[in-house]
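Please check this one:

***
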Amino acid sequence: AAVERASKPCGFLVRWCLCMVQEFILLRTLHAECKELKALAAAALSEAHTCTEAAASLATQLQGARSERDAVRSRVQGLRQQAMEAEQALENLLKLQRLREASRDGPAALAA
């Protein structure tokens, strides 16, 4: 009877000890996972920072490329205008040349 009475409280004590050991092991596992997750979060934050810097650099490059494109468009527009003016000048020169040739041929050629 004494053994039976002593084994009941001892059984509770053993179960309590097992629960404490399980909790200790679980806490160690959770702490290790937490440490690993913090390292992953730090790596992700670093990568995000790197990506943000790269995006800012690319935005600057893009703005430069757009400015260059606009300058090229403006230059092309100017060249087109000059080409039209040159064509008009050529037409005027051809008319002038025909008039000179006609004036050499006499007043009858001008009337025609």
